[in-house]
Request: fold
Amino acid sequence: MAEKNIRIVSKTGERLILTLLLVIFAMTAGIMTGCGSLDGDVTMNQLPIVEYTNIPANNDTFSFAPVIHWKGRDPDGFVEEYMYADVIDSTALLDPAYYIPFIPEDAWIRTQATSDTVYLLTSSGKVTEHVFYLKCVDDRETESAVIYRTFFRSNRPPRVPEIKWFTAPDGSFDERITIIDTSYSLSAVTESWPGIGFNWRSSDPDDKELYRIPLEFKYYLEKVPHDTIWQWVSQGWTTRQDLVLSGLESGHYTLTVWARDDGYEISERPATASFDVYQPTFEQSILLLNTTREGGGAQGNIQPGTQIGEFYRQLASRYPDTHYHHYTAVTDTIQPFKAFLGRFKLVVWFSENRDRVSAPFEGRLREYVRAGGRLWVAGAFVRSWTSDTTIALAESSYPAQPVAVSAPSISAEFTGAISSVRDLPSLSIDTSKTGTAYRPFWRGGYDLYPCLPSVDVMTAGSGAETVYTFESYTDTASGDVRNEQAFVKVSVDTINFPPTSVNCLIEIDRRRVLHVHRVLNVTRGALGQVQSLTNNVGGTQTIVRISYEFGEPWSVDDSIEVDYEFQPSSDFHRKPVAIRYEKVVEKPGGAFEVRYRVAIFTFPLYFLSDSGEVGHTEGPVTEMFNGMLDWFFYPFAH
Reply:
């Protein structure tokens, strides 16, 4: 009985296990065939769902392209992508729901993003109604129901663009500009030549305080008349707001720039920039540019300046294609000046005026150099250049520029230039020219020591070669002076006063006096006792205060002799007065290319002696000039 019961229970267990296996199999089969319940009901793939998530509400109006956000979900999978369509069909506007089956397939835009900028394009000055349809697609390529909202878009075209020269301040922006000065044009932008550049800008009247409508621009360059330069025409609309041109032929050009807003509305008219371009030819050798002013006067103007010009023309006579131009007044102009300069390989700019000539073309010469020209500046007028006008006549980073030092212009006793270059001779002044042709260069005590006292020294920075240094007559003086004439001072000012019966002031025509040994009034046969001495830093004199025994005051008519000792070496001696510099760039393969060459001499050449030595066919100035021309015209980097 017990065994029977056990068998019954075993059979009952077998039936239960079989039943469970059948249930498990049925459930598995249901899952695989889409059955969601044991009773045989079929559950299909559930549709994904999409919805709007940001603020734009139905019937909102926009004056710009809004960013619309959405999200989607799939109850039994995941969302693969989204699709939206911006429709302005009249049927859709009347009944958006009815139009859903008729939305063209190519109107749908596919994206995996959950937002996009929707342009809602419209016509200028009108309000356009749009139906924005949206749906999503799940991982089984099943589409959600289509939802929609109606939006309205208004639009005004962007403002007319404004344009300016790329180095001009922002206040120079304008709808139409004309660049008066001719621009040089090279084949490509270089370290020295920045190209022909423009900037432009525009704005949109639909801009909001916290939102600026993005704009695009299209530009094209036209060589007048009506010869479009296709290289400088934009391939399409772009967000760039600048352009640097190069490789342009000589001629007149107009650059035109249009603006377009996010509704693809174009500005009413373009911005235009008109300009002239000159491609330098450098076909002639030398331009001699003389800015020596003619006439007399306290400023030490040359008389006649044409004589100096002839001297330079003779120096450059080995080049028959040399051109000479004399500016007798600062108002003279050459038009078109850049096209004139660009014909010459070398410009020699000189002036023998002691005081600076305010020539109006320093900036043009600087651009000429940066475009590949070569420039030689010579003359005493160099001394008063400032760092911003000198600018090395090339680049702001140019390493050598003349600078006026603290000593006054008449205090530097220049008698010549000492060569620092093996192939160039040292130079000395021609006393016949300084004494007759140009008396204002030296005065007073310099009658005994002819010199050019307005020559200054300069700095020679890294990369610049010092060509000449300053030679002062005091370098060979002993510093011990006997029986030199002095003068009694009678003027009334802060340091001078009329002589009294016990003392007076006398003046010695010498700077850097160290000690006065003896003062003798030859007329009265009386010795004076030195009380003090003051070197006049602003001029060439030293003031000495003396005392003597009671009697009549010493007079300006008295003959005064002094013995004294002075510092013989000038502060300027052996300091640079001429430098030269060449800008080179390394080319592929290790070769070097010369961009430009510049030389600056702070002393005039006309007042130097060009008398040749026995056995020499050339004088020292001519020899130096030819040596410098060889340096300028040498085709390779030195």
User: Anything to note?
Assistant: The two ends are 126 Å apart (CA to CA). The first strand starts at residue 49 and ends at 52.
